[in-house]
Amino acid sequence: FILPLNLCLVTMKKLVLLLLIIIVSLVKVKAQNTVPSTDTTSTKIKITNIQITGNKRTKLYIILREMPFKIGDSLPKNQLANILTQAKTQVYNTNLFAEVVIDTTQILDSNLQIQVKVIERFYVYPIPQFQLADRSFSEWIKTYNANLNRVIYGLKFVHYNFSGRRDQLRIVALNGYARNISASYSAPYSNSALTEGFSVGAGFTQNREISYKTSVNNKILNYKKTGFVRNNISFGASYNRRKGYFLNKFISLNINNIKVDDSIITPTYNPNYFNKNTNNQLITDITIGISYNNNDNINYPQKGENYSYNISKRGFGLSGGINSTTFSGSYSRYIPHKHNFFSTIQTAGIIRVPFKQAYINQRAIGYGSFNLRGLEVYVVDGVAAAVAKYTVTKKLAAFQLPIPFKIKKIPYIPFKIFVKTFTDVGYSYNNKQYNTVLNNKLLYTGGFGIDVVTLYDIVFKVEYSFNQLGQKGIFLHGNGSL
Predict the structure, then answer these.
(1) Looking at the DSSP assignment, which residues form a beta bridge with residue 418?
(2) Which of 76, 97, 104, 304 could pair covalently with 42 via S-S, beta carbons 3.0-4.6 A apart?
(3) pLDDT of 3-43, one tens digit each?
């Protein structure tokens, strides 16, 4: 795609920061898809047996697949501790186990037996659902005064280890302010070599309210009336390939048939909603991507790094309507320091071409993890955007509370408490036609907070943050592996 010369000249300076961050996020890190380096000159010790206990449902070969050695391998003795630590991390990061313990027994001088003990998590969750129609808990409270009429309720059934091969089955039935009936199945290890996998899913959703436009002051404008104003029938499928331990490649196809209320595409609301004079749109997305994850804890990392980059094509044309090509990438680095201090550097960027896009294709800062702490109640649409975050964390305490009644899978409830301070910067470019208060300018925020990590690495965050608008406040966040 070739942009007009005058547009390039006008936006070039404004996009310098954006491009620098995206370049950093897309550069392939030096870490390789291997186990820690070994010293071949060291004395070798041979693994004669690997004994695994505690895996009542999980197949034995699923655990062995994540271990960077096998029976018959000879390992450098001076690297043994590091290799065993890596093995424990990789098994734990499957999210199948609440605890992983690896012990060794040395036989004579050069033989080694390895004992792996695991405690399986609960895999079956018929979970009552209480969701919000809003983007965040903070928005629900501050904008809608915690109105219970905006609640979505129902039941989600999840099996995280359906056949013992780390495959997941999800069935969702929701009602209330929105309806959702959906089902999906994913099998990361579908071949005998345990290097290939797939996922499939389908669903039907209805919404009583949808965002039809973003205001000049970067607030979402919602359209609603009696009954449902949006219906969506969706289908998705993906194929992934993971030969080693850290690198994963995938291709996915998603199809959505979206129908919105007739009024939304009128001049009164937003004729650019689909960038086409229709209220019914079939949207196809084909995405190819690669990701690398090598962290000490996949849910709350303190050491390691990860990156990803994707190319996604929406529609079958090059321009007009909902057609777009999206390039996105991210890079994160987690650095441990002395005295239980940790640093986190996170960057992410996205570019969509051509720059003239339908409203539904302009989501940028403020959606999902692509956000700035301190600007949670705002959205900054754009066709090109980037964010960079820096966090310093201090571990204050770690303790365990016993369960008053005996549950073998949960012998105790662990708690880790961290304090942190952070600063974020971001930039989102959009055409002047859609310009807002926060578009096309450098954004910056800062703050401090407390993170509580508990059972199954569920994380609760309380953050006090401020932004360049002079606003400040307390924001609540949560995430986990359930």
Answers:
(1) 395, 451
(2) 76
(3) 443 444 344 344 444 444 444 444 444 444 444 554 555 68
